[in-house]
Amino acid sequence: MRWRYFIILQIVILLVAAGLIYKHQDKAQLVKTPPTELAQWYKPENKRQVWLHNMFKLRREMQAVEFYAKNQDAEHMNKWAEQLNEHYLKIAEMVPSWQKKLAVSTAAELRNASEQKDYASVLVQHKILQQSCDSCHDDYQAITALTYRTPDFSKIQISSELSFVDHMDTLTRQVNQIKISAQDGNKPLALSSLVSLNDGMTILGETCVDCHKKDRKPYPSETMKKTLSSLKQSLESGTAKEQGRDLGTLAVLACARCHGTHRIAYGAKQKLIKEISFSDLIKH
Question: pLDDT digits over 64-77, tens only?
Fold first, then answer.
């Protein structure tokens, strides 16, 4: 009799938990994060993007094996199948915790079929292996890219007393101050805010080149400088329409284009790496 009550209690608890999850499904999203040991194969912990290069090799080798199996070219098929097997097994060497996710037997069967020139079997095993790869990619590929290939702006310092994030916030406030002051007819404040914005953009440009070493582009660019000059002129003697046009153009050139690449990815990364407390889980 006691066991019956115990089982009923467990069922009730499970039903309540399931009900809560269903009710709050719009407030929570399940995300599988990669193991922390993966970081050692990415920059900056590693001098090279070792994990990425191994993935690129596997993608190329998978394509080559399929191509030569379809064309029944045993010599080249064996060559690529050997490399595929080597780099596939290397995944477990780099991240031991992912050993159980690997289709090791499938990779071995593909290699054996290749040695026996069994083209049909190679293609069958190739398809099964591809499905295994796709399954793992569905879980981890985008999250891993966000985690390890997105710059961490929170650690960048403009100076010993000014962080990169705080500097970006100041630039945003200066852009808005220009708009607010111009609309309210406070020309001196609008112009002084523009001067501060110009100086701040120059300081930002000196920081950007630390990462953009190979494709260095001046920031602010000549186009941005011309827009800054045009905005200064419109603030001094132009119409509200001209002021709005110049400020909008500057916002797109100097802010939105970079934010479209960096800010969205950085924001998503911060959400991923943030440690969730028990109270946060309760709120959800």
Answer: 999 999 999 999 99
